[in-house]
């Protein structure tokens, strides 16, 4: 676990918790779904994602440079992103990070399990076509924040909505969810592969976690609520 509960993180938890209150009622009345994921498993998925958002699974490691200016901004970054940047700066090596590449359980594992199920039971080609576009947009819009990792805009998943309306309105919530999450994750991986290790660095870089979890969770909520009107 890398994330920590500070004021910023607490506000985020409270906000998502308040959003889940009406969703709980709608799921109880079987009015929400994403494709063939019905109300009960959908609610469990949303709850699990919120509860496991800080669980990181290490998959690899690389060397990245420790920027000199990072120390001056460490406490600000810790407050904004709820990660212990000041502690992570204390490493055996003065000028480099042994950066751990991790995948977030809530932002990768849970959504991918849902996506595999949806692709096996829904429109594959349309979802993947839009996902390719979202991947490119995410890659262009993402930013490597020293000491934090790769950040993508929280709204990025919404860009799949007009495309889904044009190409697959009958399965819109499923297509929006699959294309957005796949596009966000693939865009983060593309950004990771192209970062300048001589200029940027962080003790951890998470796929689906810090910097991208909010975008994934927000589009999951929106796709769920869209099904109420379809």
Structure description:
The chain is α+β, with helices and mostly antiparallel strands. The protein has 9 helices and 5 strands; from the N terminus they run H-H-E-H-H-E-H-H-E-E-H-H-E-H. Helix 7 packs across helix 8. The protein starts with 6 loop residues before the first helix and ends with a helix. The model has no long low-confidence stretch (mean pLDDT 90).
Q: Kindly provide the radius of gyration, computed on alpha-carbon positions and rounded to a whole number of angstroms.
A: 18 Å
Helix and strand pattern: HHEHHEHHEEHHEH
> How are the strands of the biggest sheet laid out side by side?
1-2-5
Taking all residues together, what is the mean pLDDT? Answer: 90
The overall strand count is 5
Short description:
The protein is of the alpha+beta class and 230 residues long. It is built from 9 helices and 5 strands.
Write the layout of secondary structure elements.
Layout: H1 7-28, H2 39-51, E1 56-65, H3 70-81, H4 85-88, E2 96-104, H5 105-121, H6 124-141, E3 143-145, E4 149-151, H7 160-167, H8 172-194, E5 204-207, H9 213-226
Parallel strand pairs: 2-5
Antiparallel strand pairs: 1-2, 3-4
Helix pairs in contact: 1-2, 2-5, 2-9, 5-8, 6-7, 6-8, 7-8, 8-9
Supply the key terms:
230 residues, alpha+beta, three-stranded mixed beta sheet, two-stranded antiparallel ribbon, 57% helix, 13% strand
